[in-house]
Amino acid sequence: MKAISVKNFKKSYRSEFWLKKIPAIEDLSFEVEQSTVTGFLGANGAGKSTTIKSILGLLIPDAGEIRFFGDKELSPETRSRIGFLPERPFFYEYLSGKEFLEFYAQLSGMKLGKKLNLRIEELLELVGLSHAGEKKLREYSKGMLQRVGIAQAIIHDPELIIFDEPMSGLDPDGRYDVGQILQQIAEQGKTVFFSSHLLDDVERISKNLVVLKKGSLIYQGSLAELLGNVDSDYRIEYTDSTELFSEEVKDQESLQKRLDEIRQKKMAIVRIQPVKANLEQAYVNLNEK
Predict the structure, then answer these.
(1) Can you tell me whether residue 100 is helix, strand or coil?
(2) For the chain, is the Cβ count within 10 Å smaller at the N or the C terminus?
């Protein structure tokens, strides 16, 4: 079953001056598999946030359809099965971490009591904030705010969680921590769909990808398949018996040419090994097509 199915989605905006429609998304179709982590990629202005807002009903599409959990529309019942953390969430800084989660739990229809208290303690532990539940949010760092925001998104135990740039503005440690939390959420059988421009983080935690370019789909599928389509670089190590040299070449033709040159110089080849392709290379290749 598909957690999200987007078909022939179109969205345009009117410019302020001439009121001329400017297309943002053109005939976009993709699916998000259930119980997986799917990264949503694209350059600034590619349409990621517009798509996410339309999926959540915050924007109205010009055309197309969006379905959830097989073939369900965005009804109140469907909304109750979805969690969301926007790119720039608002935090009530006078609330403590626990009070903040209690507030959003009540907005989600949950009742105050022992069951909710246990749920809050469980989530604070999941996001590494057990020690800070009584602290006011004004005392939280950027990374701590992002983590309590994630806890807010899953307070009602949703099946599908959507994050818009969850690692944005965090230091490397913070990005790693958030990535680990997203993976732990997915390991509980949840579906995680998140946008990001941080390719290292996307590669580390995603199974599948949806990639946009100027409002159009340029890739949908597994991360492994995309990386498998990238030509491997090769690393050559060789020596003149006094010093060890190392260099990389782009493809097999270049590899053979360089090996011939090394042999002509009477140097000994120590090792030849392929260099693993990464998402940055694959992403650049996609956008160059």
Answers:
(1) helix
(2) C
> Is the distance from CB of 169 to CB of 198 less than 8 angstroms?
no
Name residues of the chain where pLDDT drops below 50.
none
Q: Which residues of 159-198 are buried (b: 16+ CB within 10 A; e: fewer)?
A: bbbbbbbbbbebeeebbbbbbebbeebbeeebbbbbbbbb
DSSP 8-state symbol, 110: P
Domain spans, the chain: 2-228, 230-288
Structure tokens at 213: 């370019």
Task: Count CA atoms closer than 13 A to 144's CA, side-chain side.
Answer: 17
Closest listed residue to residue 51, CA positions, set 201, 168, 195: 195
Torsion on CA atoms 27, 33, 36, 42, rounded to nearest 10: -10
Of 161, 155, 146, the C-alpha closest to 122 is 155
Could you give the 3-state DSSP secondary structure of residue 244? strand
User: How far is it, in rounded angstroms, from Cα 61 to Cα 53?
Assistant: 10
d(CA 37, CA 35): 7
Q: pTM for this structure?
A: 0.83
Q: Answer whether 155's CB lies under 8 Å from 105's CB.
A: yes
- Given strand 160-164, what is the order of strands in its sheet? 82-85, 160-164, 191-195, 37-41, 208-213, 216-222
Hey, how many other C-beta atoms are within 10 angstroms of the C-beta on 279?
Answer: 21
pLDDT tens per residue across span 109-135: 888 889 999 999 999 999 999 999 999
Looking at residue 26, its amino acid is E
Query: What is the fold, at CATH topology level, of the domain defined by 2-228?
Result: Rossmann fold (3.40.50)
